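Narrative of accomplishments. A recurring question from our advisory board has been how the design workflow behaves on a single, concrete structure rather than in aggregate. To address it, we present the structure tokens for one chain from the evaluation set, followed by the sequence designed for it. No filtering or post-editing was applied between the two.
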């Protein structure tokens, strides 16, 4: 009777340790998958640096976060104090683009020319269903000449088929860095609560700021989740070894 009870207890302990290890491993896997997805939720510029006086080809990367609605419009607000004289969109299948030009409240002098009117917004409107869940839209546009200034924020309003609008503004607005050092916004959960972190050196003109740091952080943390799960599994297997 004593032997039977001892074996039964060992079996229970084995099942418990294996279940705990499996749970830890699954949680690690969930962490690895969830973090990169949430880190890529921002509307950003594919390349966010340009040289003064150049004509920059910028691409807005727009993800759809809704599980029930599609992205049907993308509106980019352009600066009026440092305006772009030329704005040209690139044709996108399934979308139509419109550049809106308005009279500036205060004329701006660029070189020997005084600008009284300038493009102030770009509106892309879906001609079909739009961008569905987990889809990423690329919206390229040529802007120039690039003003000789520090940086230019270009807020984006992302419209959904259910009538809702997500405003990417303030610290979450896509920003073109010209003379200022590139600033990276760290915000893993996508709510814009984390303060920005500046790089120590400005990026060279026409060069990308590098991989999205939020995506890198997601991969690192996700890998850590898998590692923790693997460690837990290894510990449980060691505990399964019968004692003398």
């Amino acid at each position: 009777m004593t032997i039977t009870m001892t074996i039964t207890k060992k079996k229970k302990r084995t099942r418990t340790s294996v279940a705990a290890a499996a749970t830890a491993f699954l949680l690690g896997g969930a962490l690895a998958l969830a973090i990169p997805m949430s880190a890529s939720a921002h509307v950003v510029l594919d390349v966010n640096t340009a040289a003064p006086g150049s004509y920059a080809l910028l691409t807005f990367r727009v993800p759809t976060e809704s599980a029930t609605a599609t992205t049907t419009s993308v509106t980019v607000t352009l600066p009026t104090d440092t305006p772009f004289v030329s704005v040209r969109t690139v044709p996108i299948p399934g979308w139509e683009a419109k550049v809106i030009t308005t009279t500036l409240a205060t004329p701006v002098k660029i070189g020997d020319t005084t600008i009284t009117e300038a493009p102030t917004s770009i509106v892309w409107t879906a001609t079909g269903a739009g961008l569905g869940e987990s889809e990423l839209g690329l919206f390229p546009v040529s802007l120039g000449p690039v003003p000789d200034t520090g940086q230019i924020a270009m807020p984006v309003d992302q419209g959904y088929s259910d009538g809702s609008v997500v405003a990417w503004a303030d610290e979450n607005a896509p920003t073109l860095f010209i003379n200022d050092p590139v600033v990276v916004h760290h915000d893993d959960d996508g709510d814009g609560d984390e303060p920005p972190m500046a790089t120590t050196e400005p990026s060279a003109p026409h060069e990308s700021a590098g991989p999205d740091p939020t995506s890198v952080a997601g991969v690192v943390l996700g890998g850590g989740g898998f590692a923790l799960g693997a460690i837990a599994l290894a510990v449980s297997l060691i505990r399964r070894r019968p004692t003398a």
